[in-house]
Amino acid sequence: MRDPLVPGDMALQPFLPNTASDFTLDAMLARQPPFFPAIALTSHGSLHLPVAQRHPMLDPVNAETILRKASLEPLNATQSAKLSPPKTLETVATEDDPKVHLDARHLWTQFHKFGTEMVITKSGRRMFPPFKARCTGLNQRAKYILLMDIVAADDFRYKFHNSRWMVSGKADPEMPKRMYIHPDSPASGEQWMSKVVNFHKLKLTNNISDKHGFTILNSMHKYQPRFHVVRANDILKLPYSTFMTYVFSETEFIAVTAYQNEKITQMKIDNNPFAKGFRDTGNGRREKK
């Protein structure tokens, strides 16, 4: 079985523009190596980007799992160690130790208990609960780019039968995954730490021809959201930057075109302030497929 969180080791060649005028986003996209997945930046902040190596120690309990990722740009570890300068007061002052805390964790845990479902539509649907997080340990003056992506949690397709989710077969092929860049990126560590980082504008779709930068998912498949912190002052530097990835197991969900579990439906109605229409009419649950 493939590792659902990590596509595998990759080595990327750095992009080197010929002239100053070439140093544009279009130029970078046009010259990317053939084994680098297609990059697409839109007004919604979507980015196709591969993920590097997985940390060998993963926390199995419902707590944040941190994956430290090497830079996507190839670098010999031995050479790196030899070339690293000794620490000084100046270098220590610029260091950071990013930590991410899931906001509204109790609500996510309640949904996770019954098997969280997220509706996907052709036009795109926002997640509820929305993914929100608080960051600490960032360097106040350094710039950071914050991103999210959603990856397959396993290799199976599911069905809701006898009031529970069960495996119904092998997973359908996945579309190339997109990373959603928080629209405030890049911003200083001080700015990120002063507020809750909210990804409520991220939308899920089952439209494989989507042109809006939404996250494309398969219905009746299980997915895992991931949160990424990148210390960089320009989005163009993302392919060559070091990613810090945070995984919260209680945010795992199954994508559906209509809610299957009545308990999940009721919890969405009770907790979502935008579900007034559901409460007034009693609608919102279409026939199961």
UniProtKB/TrEMBL annotation:
The yes or no answer to whether the keyword Ligase is present is: no
CDD domains to which the protein is assigned, alphabetical: T-box_TBX2_3-like
Write out the annotated subcellular location.
Nucleus
Main localization is nucleus
A single GO CC term for this protein reads: nucleus
Pfam families, from UniProt?
T-box (PF00907)
Q: Which domain of life is it from?
A: Eukaryota
- Swiss-Prot/TrEMBL keywords: DNA-binding, Nucleus, Transcription, Transcription regulation
Q: Which GO terms are recorded in the biological process aspect for this UniProt protein? A: cell fate specification; positive regulation of DNA-templated transcription
Single Gene Ontology MF annotation: DNA-binding transcription factor activity, RNA polymerase II-specific
Q: Entry's InterPro entries? A: p53-like_TF_DNA-bd_sf, T-box_DNA-bd, T-box_sf, TF_Brachyury, TF_T-box, TF_T-box_CS
Span of domain T-box: 102-280
Matching PROSITE patterns: TBOX_1 (PS01283), TBOX_2 (PS01264), TBOX_3 (PS50252)
Its recorded name reads: T-box transcription factor TBX3
- Write the lineage as a comma-separated list: Eukaryota, Metazoa, Chordata, Craniata, Vertebrata
Q: What gene codes for this chain?
A: tbx3b
